[in-house]
Amino acid sequence: MSSFGPETADASDVPDFAAVVAALDRLAPWLVRTPVVRSTSFDALCGRRVYLKCENLQHGGAFKYRGALNAVLQRPAAAVGLPVATHSSGNHAAALALAAQARGLACHVVIPEDATASKLAAVVAAGARIRRCPPGLAAREAALADWLAAEPAHLVHPFDDARVIAGQGTAALELLCEVPELAVLAVPVGGGGLLGGTALAARGASPGCRVVGVEPALADDAARSLRSGRRERLEGSPPTLADGLRSSIGWRNFVLLQRCVDEVLTVEETAIVAAMRLVLQHYRLLIEPSSAVAVAALLDGRLGRPGERVGIVISGGNVDLQQCRYLAAPV
């Protein structure tokens, strides 16, 4: 079940544009149709026409609900009645727990010890059974493998699952249906499920739209993978504020990276914080650091050209308020 897994695999297990379209039809009754927002002051600041798809307003506060629910709704017959299980730093865990709850299923989740307190609380509130593990993707995978060996459950991988990738692509498909003239569409990239699904949506719905992934410089495996032509991995748990982007890119998403993605950019930690601040100032939206990476690349002028229409999927809004100096609860 390792997300780093084999270097090659059956290409038929990589989703296509039709899978994203089918996922949107399947999920539409269950989703929040999140808004696309504009800010004239922000446009003036960066010299582009910017469209933010607000997945921070999705169920569970992140885009992850789309992929998790798509997987739950497509469980194989052999998995009917079994709990669903995953490992996650937070957002996918909460999303899968909510999706399981909606279908009357139990949910088992392995969460690393460095997960933010707010994300852990959201998973608990959604009713999942939790086991903790040391930080890092390898530790998460090993802990989940041990749990699955002891208690059978249906695995819904956080990013390297064709059903999850197709579900994540529905956010971009909604955006492209609403704003079809985008020149660039950018998303954060960690394990790559959102990037893979977004690339499929763009290539199918708007082939001329450039697709860009953005990640922290401290967790730059996707950028290295695109340059080298082979999957590069992260070692341990990188010390980036963008806690949702600490995973190595999955093999299905690496295939889609090579086929469909134009570029992967990296940003520094200070730029991530600045992007969060400016989104709050101009849009009145508090977004999590993982969401802010694409905005950071826009602000430094590397995303899009002057005057172009640029779309960004704001992937989540699950901010640990204890890390926000003026919003932290008194102790």
Number of strands: 10
* Reported CATH architecture of the largest domain: 3-Layer(aba) Sandwich
Using the alpha-carbon principal axes, give the shape. globular
Counted by DSSP, the helix tally is 12
* Relative strand content: 5-15%
- Measured between the Cα atoms of the first and last residue, the distance is 42 Å
Class by helix and strand content? alpha/beta
Q: Can you tell me about this structure?
A:
The protein is of the alpha/beta class and 331 residues long. The protein folds into two domains: 11-63 and 161-323, Rossmann fold; 65-155, Rossmann fold (3-Layer(aba) Sandwich), CATH 3.40.50. 41% of the residues lie in helices and 15% in strands. It is built from twelve helices and ten strands. It has helices spanning 17-27, 40-46, 64-73, 91-102, 117-125, 137-150, 162-178, 193-205, 221-228, 251-260, 269-283, 289-299, and strands at residues 36-37, 49-54, 84-87, 107-112, 129-133, 154-155, 184-188, 210-216, 263-267, 309-314. The strands form two sheets. Strands 1-2-10-7-8-9 form a six-stranded mixed sheet, with helices on both faces. A four-stranded parallel sheet has the order 5-4-3-6, with helices on both faces. Strand 4 (107-112), helix 5 and strand 5 form a beta-alpha-beta unit.
